[in-house]
């Protein structure tokens, strides 16, 4: 089943529900600052597990105390789709100090 790109309005509506996430060109992006490098590395491992579970992978970067994600859907021509927002919501749910706990 093909994944359809979201309209600009759909993207804006969904971003309103995900504080901290933004649209950068054709990608959803978010950075997290954590209390230590170990905590940031642990978050990367958790995100990698979610990405494998969803079979949808972002560009994921580990910094000293930071984790950054950038995602779009390659199979939709590099556009933002509901798959990207599903991943973003799942990451928010597990990010320390962010999302629902």
Describe this structure as you would to a colleague:
Strands 1-2-4-3 form a 4-stranded antiparallel beta sheet. With 101 residues, it is α+β, with helices and mostly antiparallel strands. It is globular, with a radius of gyration of 13 Å. It has helices at residues 8-15, 37-54, 82-94; strands at residues 22-24, 27-33, 59-62, 66-71. The protein contains 3 helices and 4 strands; from the N terminus they run H-E-E-H-E-E-H.
How helix-rich are the residues, as a percent range? 25-40%
Query: What fraction of the residues are assigned to beta strands by DSSP?
Result: 15-25%
Shape: globular
Distance between the termini: 33 Å
Described by strand count, sense and barrel closure, the largest sheet is: 4 strands, antiparallel
Oligomeric composition of the shown chains: single chain
In angstroms, what is the radius of gyration?
Answer: 13 Å
Helix/strand-derived class? alpha+beta
SSE series: HEEHEEH
Mean pLDDT: 94
Number of DSSP strands? 4
Number of helices: 3
What low-confidence regions span 5 or more consecutive residues with pLDDT below 50?
none
Keyphrases for this structure?
101 residues, alpha+beta, four-stranded antiparallel beta sheet, 39% helix
How would you summarize this macromolecular structure in one to three sentences?
The protein has 101 residues and is an alpha+beta fold. The chain has helices spanning 8-15, 37-54, 82-94, and strands at residues 22-24, 27-33, 59-62, 66-71.
């Amino acid at each position: 089943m093909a994944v359809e790109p979201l309209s600009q309005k759909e993207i804006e509506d969904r971003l309103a529900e995900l504080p901290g996430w933004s649209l950068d060109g054709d990608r959803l992006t978010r950075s997290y600052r954590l209390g230590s490098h170990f905590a940031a590395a642990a978050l990367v491992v958790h995100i990698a597990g979610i990405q494998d579970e969803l079979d949808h992978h972002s560009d994921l970067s580990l910094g000293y105390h930071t984790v950054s994600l950038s995602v779009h859907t390659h199979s939709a021509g590099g556009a933002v789709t509901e798959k990207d927002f599903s991943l973003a919501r799942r990451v928010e749910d597990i990010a320390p100090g962010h999302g629902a706990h």
